[in-house]
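Example record used in the benchmark description.
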Amino acid sequence: MERDDVEHLDRLARRVDAPGPIAVLDPLARNLLAGDQAAGLGAAAGKWAVTAQQIMLYGGPFGPHVPNSVSVETIAASGHSDLVWRHPGFHGVPVVPGNTYTWWTPGLVAAGAAMVNAQVAWYNAAKSFISSSTASRPGTPLVSAAPPGAAYVRPYVAFTATGLWDLGASIFAPGDISDALLGGERPVGDGCPTYSITGYTHAASAGDGRYRDVALELVEVVNSANG
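Model output (structure tokens):
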């Protein structure tokens, strides 16, 4: 690894900037949502956030492979009631400023749910809201670049009418995969779990001091609080 990359990892490993866990994002991942969340299966706790009495999720609590249905009971005074996709350990799905991402809920689109175009909310490392992005056309994926300072994103759906719909598949993916999604692809959720670094070493590579050999030992954090 080159020096700039090593210095970045060194700060993370030695917890120079913060004591918390880190995210490891697979650059080849096709869906950063967890597998059951991406498929709309199982208990809703920790996967989706709603405002009480506006939206209820049915079905999933009966088993890990039972599909969820979304019941929109009331519409808020703002004109919409929101269903937010949560990350199990971070404030939102971790993102890199300037990188492009694709968000879509083809399951709800196919079910005919009454909702605003695909939307996301961006947050900085301090968990403060930065801005939101919305797809230009209804029923199509949102392709958007993370704004400067972004550390997390919360994908969501804003329902505009009451009703009951199957939740189905959802995708939050690195890069622009909109054509593939519209062509019928439904990538399985790979997830982006939180890790704690429990072991760390680095040393100069033989023959060239510009490079370093780095070794990290990672343990997945499964009970991290979601702020």
